[in-house]
Amino acid sequence: MAILSPRSLALSLPRLSPRSSPPLRKPSVSLTDLSAPSLPRRLPLAVRRAASANPSPLAAADASTWEVLGGVSVLAASTGEPVLFKDLWDQNEGVAVVALLRQFGCICCWELASVLKDSMPRFDSAGIKLIAVGVGTPDRARILAERLPFPLDCLYADPDRKAYEVLGLYYGLGRTFFNPASAKVFSRWDSIKKAGKNYTIAATPDDKASVLQQGGMLVFRGKQLLYARKDEGTGDHAPLDEIFDICCRVPVA
């Protein structure tokens, strides 16, 4: 059994220097509008519906999000085979929650995956498809899936961080280690300890610069983006009650 302490959060991520961070390509589409000072970082469905009815930069960003993300391929954790995002759920009326984990060796991501797994009955009963994507290779994804455990058919690997880059999710030393939003992990310490019972750092990607990547959460109905949230720092996950609130307002075909 892994013994966790506050210090182990930092130890679960290799020490890095700013020089080890590779340059990133400019994102094809950014979710910056969703965290701009003039707009709340988490937008209710009613606001998004209004944006769709009255074209605006936000509505345009929603449309372009699907255009760039749909063509991104990830690797199925179960087989290692590539699959396009656009093939992961019904593109007409299907509702999907896309959880972008940081990386498979992050203890906070094990906690998020554990919470998502425990919520699977609610997702299934509401007809919602859960898709979890993490940074790393399929073999590292399988370590998480086997030891947590987590359903393999919902888990995908993005070793090159393609989805993260096109969405413009946060990346860097400051976001990973020093962002004030990360302090909220201490309020979930019991949940983290439970998720880390069988934790192993062996799930960390070989590309150690990948540990600087932050995640996020998206909700789609078909190709329509209903909700998008960028994690501000390590462990700053979207509240699931908020996700279910968005999903339950959407009639499922």
Automatic annotation (TrEMBL):
Entry superkingdom: Eukaryota
Name of this protein: (wild Malaysian banana) hypothetical protein
